[in-house]
């Protein structure tokens, strides 16, 4: 039995993680490469996303847990 070399498209499975000087590329948990970025490079993200210290954050609105209330109670207070 012989084994033949074959190319498999893994593009949709590759994940990039920000680093101080670029982006590390991973396939599952295996580092497969790196994209180096010049000093002073910036990221353009949608308005509700931002980067800070090599992390990407999404700004979302969440309920204030300090004022949790039942929302389906009647006027008498029965829930």
Can you put this structure into words, describing what you see?
The chain has 79 residues and is mainly β. The chain has a domain at 11-61. It is 0% helix and 34% strand. It has no helices and 5 strands. It has strands at residues 14-19, 22-27, 30-36, 49-52, 55-58. Strands 1-2-3 form a 3-stranded antiparallel β-sheet, with no helix packed on it. A two-stranded antiparallel ribbon has the order 4-5. The chain starts with 13 loop residues before the first strand and ends in a 21-residue tail after the last strand.
Q: What is the number of helical segments per DSSP (H or I, 4+ residues)?
A: 0
Mean pLDDT: 86
Q: Which regions are unreliable across 5 or more consecutive residues at pLDDT < 50?
A: none
Biggest β-sheet, characterized? Answer: 3 strands, antiparallel
Strand element count: 5
Structural category: mainly beta
Order of helices and strands: EEEEE
β-strand amount: 25-35%
- With strands numbered from the N-terminus, the spatial order across the biggest sheet is 1-2-3
Radius of gyration from the alpha-carbon trace, in angstroms: 23 Å
Q: Could you estimate the helical fraction of the residues in percent?
A: under 10%
Shape label? elongated
Distance between the termini: 71 Å
Organism: Cytobacillus oceanisediminis
Pfam family, one: DUF2553
Protein name: DUF2553 family protein
InterPro entries: Uncharacterised_YusG
Topology:
Elements: E1 14-19, E2 22-27, E3 30-36, E4 49-52, E5 55-58
Antiparallel strand pairs: 1-2, 2-3, 4-5
